[in-house]
């Protein structure tokens, strides 16, 4: 039986939502997997903005994008996802992806934090257009603890149900604090 990873599950959900010509944001570029998927989905007429605060992540994402020939449609920015509003206009973005925690294979002391993560989600919701999708993969436990997970989930629970549909799932039978996939659709 195939081991089904959270990123594959999130990618499946995103793949049914993003269309050619869309504008999308990868708020936590990491190793570039979500950026690459979004660049494929938006096609030559779409655009992607990917953010990370780590030079290593920016370089790896650029390498992947360049290798696939998607550099023209993708901007990779060394900056915090809190500042994504400086790079995209309000109500124009079709999809925003987040992977909270630390860079796989990177320095575990450099991880997303509750305060800035909630600020970035707020900023992202402002940028999403009607029917836009936000994908959040929330990793916790181990090095990163649980504060960020708890704060993000509390924030999502308080979103106005007339403006947003929030879907939170869990890997119910997985040990060791599996990641929590969450999705927000702007109504």
List its traits:
187 residues; alpha/beta; seven-stranded mixed β-sheet
Write up what this structure looks like:
It is a single chain. The protein has five helices and seven strands; from the N terminus they run H-E-H-E-H-E-E-H-E-H-E-E. With 187 residues, the protein is α/β, with parallel strands linked by helices. Helix 2 links the parallel strand 1 and strand 2. The model has no long low-confidence stretch (mean pLDDT 88).
Number of separate helices:
5
Question: What class would the helix/strand composition place it in?
Answer: alpha/beta
Strand order of the largest sheet: 3-2-1-4-5-7-6
Percent of residues in helices comes to: 25-40%
- CA-CA gap between termini: 37 Å
What sequence of helices (H) and strands (E) makes up the elements? HEHEHEEHEHEE
- Tell me the total number of β-strands: 7
Beta percentage is: 15-25%
The gross shape turns out to be: globular
The biggest sheet, with number of strands, parallel, antiparallel or mixed sense and barrel status, is: 7 strands, mixed
Q: Uncertain spans, ≥5 residues at pLDDT below 50?
A: none
What is the C-alpha radius of gyration, as a whole number of Å?
15 Å
On the 0 to 100 scale, the average pLDDT is: 88
What topology does this entry show?
Layout: H1 6-15, E1 23-26, H2 33-42, E2 47-52, H3 55-68, E3 74-78, E4 93-100, H4 114-127, E5 128-138, H5 147-157, E6 164-168, E7 180-186
Parallel strand pairs: 1-2, 1-4, 2-3, 4-5
Antiparallel strand pairs: 5-7, 6-7
Helix pairs in contact: 1-2, 2-3, 4-5
């Amino acid at each position: 039986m195939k081991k089904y990873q959270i990123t594959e599950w999130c990618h499946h959900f995103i793949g049914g939502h993003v269309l050619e010509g869309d504008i999308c944001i990868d708020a936590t570029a990491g190793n570039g997997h979500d950026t690459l998927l979004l660049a494929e989905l938006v096609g030559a007429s779409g655009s992607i903005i990917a953010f990370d605060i780590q030079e290593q992540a920016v370089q790896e994402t650029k390498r992947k994008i360049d290798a696939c020939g998607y550099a023209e449609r993708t901007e990779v920015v060394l900056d915090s996802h809190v500042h994504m509003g400086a790079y995209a206009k309000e109500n124009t973005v079709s999809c925003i992806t987040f992977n909270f925690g630390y860079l796989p294979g990177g320095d575990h002391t450099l991880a997303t934090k509750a305060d800035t993560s909630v600020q970035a989600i707020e900023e992202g919701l402002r940028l999403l257009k009607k029917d836009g999708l936000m994908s959040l993969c929330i990793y916790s436990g181990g090095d990163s603890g649980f504060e960020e997970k708890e704060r993000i989930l509390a924030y999502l629970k308080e979103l106005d149900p007339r403006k947003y549909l929030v879907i939170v799932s869990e890997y119910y039978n997985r040990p060791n604090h599996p990641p929590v996939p969450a999705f927000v659709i702007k109504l």
